Amino acid sequence: MGLPDDIASVYAKNRERIGFVPNVFRAYAKRPDHFRAFMAYHDVLMKGEGGLSRAEREAIVVAVSAENKCQYCVTAHGAALRILGKDPVLADQIAINWRTADLSPRWRAMLGFASRVNEQGFAAGDDEIEALRGAGFSDTDIWDIAAIAAFFGFSNRMAGALDMRPNPEFYAMGR
Amino acid sequence: MGLPDDIASVYAKNRERIGFVPNVFRAYAKRPDHFRAFMAYHDVLMKGEGGLSRAEREAIVVAVSAENKCQYCVTAHGAALRILGKDPVLADQIAINWRTADLSPRWRAMLGFASRVNEQGFAAGDDEIEALRGAGFSDTDIWDIAAIAAFFGFSNRMAGALDMRPNPEFYAMGR
Amino acid sequence: MGLPDDIASVYAKNRERIGFVPNVFRAYAKRPDHFRAFMAYHDVLMKGEGGLSRAEREAIVVAVSAENKCQYCVTAHGAALRILGKDPVLADQIAINWRTADLSPRWRAMLGFASRVNEQGFAAGDDEIEALRGAGFSDTDIWDIAAIAAFFGFSNRMAGALDMRPNPEFYAMGR
Amino acid sequence: MGLPDDIASVYAKNRERIGFVPNVFRAYAKRPDHFRAFMAYHDVLMKGEGGLSRAEREAIVVAVSAENKCQYCVTAHGAALRILGKDPVLADQIAINWRTADLSPRWRAMLGFASRVNEQGFAAGDDEIEALRGAGFSDTDIWDIAAIAAFFGFSNRMAGALDMRPNPEFYAMGR
Amino acid sequence: MGLPDDIASVYAKNRERIGFVPNVFRAYAKRPDHFRAFMAYHDVLMKGEGGLSRAEREAIVVAVSAENKCQYCVTAHGAALRILGKDPVLADQIAINWRTADLSPRWRAMLGFASRVNEQGFAAGDDEIEALRGAGFSDTDIWDIAAIAAFFGFSNRMAGALDMRPNPEFYAMGR
Amino acid sequence: MGLPDDIASVYAKNRERIGFVPNVFRAYAKRPDHFRAFMAYHDVLMKGEGGLSRAEREAIVVAVSAENKCQYCVTAHGAALRILGKDPVLADQIAINWRTADLSPRWRAMLGFASRVNEQGFAAGDDEIEALRGAGFSDTDIWDIAAIAAFFGFSNRMAGALDMRPNPEFYAMGR
User: Fold this and answer.
1) Does pTM surpass 0.90?
2) Is the predicted ipTM greater than 0.90, yes or no?
3) Which residues of E touch A (CB under 8 A)?
């Protein structure tokens, strides 16, 4: 019995674009409904319209995943950030500790808020939202920072629960 | 300018079924793509096939939301658990602290794992998975416990970031 | 062998006033000297003269007990706060998380200080005391906030150590 | 205006017995009702009948107060433990860290449980109670360990909130 | 005014061996006595006789530095571990989270103990030492694991206090 | 087989000066290279040139060791601080909790920074450095505060890993 066509097509696209099928897809393929729900939400967050660049979205994922010590996501999204952000050293810094990375003020504000959202029991205060607006983020941007940070906290936890391993190819990508 | 038809229809169904539109829908309706992705994933997790009853799924949401101190989710899903679980006292106990609630061994094992998944940096060990199998959970059930716990950690964080307020109607439901 | 008269009289008064004997009394009745010392201190704190209303005192108990995840005290004092505070929704919000409850500035300052006192190793700074005075609290009020918060931290721990269960009647009271 | 007679008599007794009035009495004397409630409960716990020696009771106070970093209580009860326990080196070890003190198995079990009670959100499990029984503690002893640990967590918090300073005389007592 | 001869010679050796002077040397060169004390201790720990291989010693440094989120040390010692350990993927896994890295039982025991030493307030219990002996470590090995873990906790803190930046050359080394 | 001459001479000097050999020397004497590296670094930090008095350096050691609950270092360096600082009550206060000790503004700033360095994952911000300069500390002083705090965090961990016991003589010294 084979993969559903839509999932097989995701596999094929990945083989063509990066040469291999990321293990997260292989894991989720065991539950096709979950695969589709995850991919759909992922694409809204990471490829949907909005004020954040694709590199900024990946930076949020990497910063939060590093705080959550997620082996799979730091590795896979670290590779994506090295490529999309065009600054592999900065990407590796964020993968270790965004607080001591050489960030622009915009990225520092963005990752600071992502990190707050990642805390257990966080609720945004007015001051925090005002500071983000002062740093140039719209309310939609603020939503997107929060949603990306929170969604990948979910993804980090699934990777941990399913003992997902990064494909070895990721380690050398974008260097 | 009105709501997209599919969202308007969700509003209508809620008004019919419970008499009001939960504020989470009003919040997400501002971003229809997010509304749809959230609802689709929610339905896979909470209404999809699987070995966990609907009450068990709600119990996971309430236990994790209480650990995350999420005002909206404890209130709204607490109401759902009172109704679906048919034991309002137990539901209220879980909303305060699942560890000191009068749980069956099955629920204690289930909520114990959900709580582990909710910890920052969790990665499941073989012992933990074996214990769950010993308590009668299949691998698919284990996936579902983890996915529900982790997804509502995401939802808790969105509720905190968007300062979502529970509708007052929830407090009296199921009592 | 029966209960000492003074304890039997507390039982009787409770049966008359609320229809049942709260389990905390049944637990402490096993050690009459402890029962009396507890009740005497309780009454000084909760019914003694002072600038805090009875609802405010219960709000402190509920907020601290929720932070300490005390099944018994959140349930029993949550019921008291719903009745004395005459705002059951607000009472339930405080029982989940006072930080995201719809509090007046006075209550926010009061519960903020109670929560600080509840932290391990807390020592009040001058700034903190000044802020409370600025919010209209006298030095005696500040003492009372601290004493109620700290005393119920003690009570929460006894409830945990003795595995005290809330009487089922509490859940519906004041709704 | 003078002190109430009963409080004046406590002052006098302390001057006679140890040569000075401990600052905790001076602090509580400002609220005579609180003074009396505190002293009454204190005496039930520290001087009441029971299976724990007075030195054991002080050891619990010192261990918990050290965990709570309470300047006043570590100093004052540290002095009491040096005197009552007749082993000043052991007393000073407990004042720093009971876990690395040279404890008998009985004291290690006793302080281990006191420390658990001191944790936020603690609820005793059956295993924990069984282990204490195995170490020779009766149910009444277990109650007393918990009550002393929890009550002095309250006292530690009051000392912090009131910025209570140890009398300098305590530092040299019992050496 | 130039560098002291012994420090200039360390600079020269590094330029010859790896092509650049690691920034940690530039930082410490401002305080030559500190430079010498640090280097002497470093060499005892990392190059002295003992049962741990050089790769094992670097693995301890990387695991602890990652727990301490030390930008400089994860980067510089991560490079060293990629080279000395001859398994760059494993080295990168340890740099993210040793707990979810593909470790041998020996390395898991070794890094588990290093991580315990890195905890605040750690004191080794007999069980822990027995387990390490059971995993084949001698008492001298156990000392070395502890000393390397603890010394680099010191080094991590200095890097944080001095805002030390990794040289960009480190990121590509050993890949 | 005897002690190496240089270590025997340290023993002799201690016997002459304080009447006994501190147990830390006996522990390290088992690894003479470690003994020498430790002593050399210790002397640079504690006896080297610089703007901090010897009492100030010991105060940093005591404050950090108390935070790390190090039985050996609080006891041994507590004794040193009582003697060098000429204020035994203040020394004992710092040994319990520097935050509630009667510190001068200079010592409060100094121990506040030492405590920050002692936190896991600390990285100094510009504001923090500015505040220290404002309190009269030079950049070299700031380095020394950080280095002493961090080095004794290392020493605390070694004492815990090696189960080092304070000599009983320390408890009475300087009182």
Assistant:
1) yes
2) yes
3) 66, 69-71, 74-75, 88-89, 92-93, 95-97, 99-102, 160, 163, 165, 168, 171-172, 175
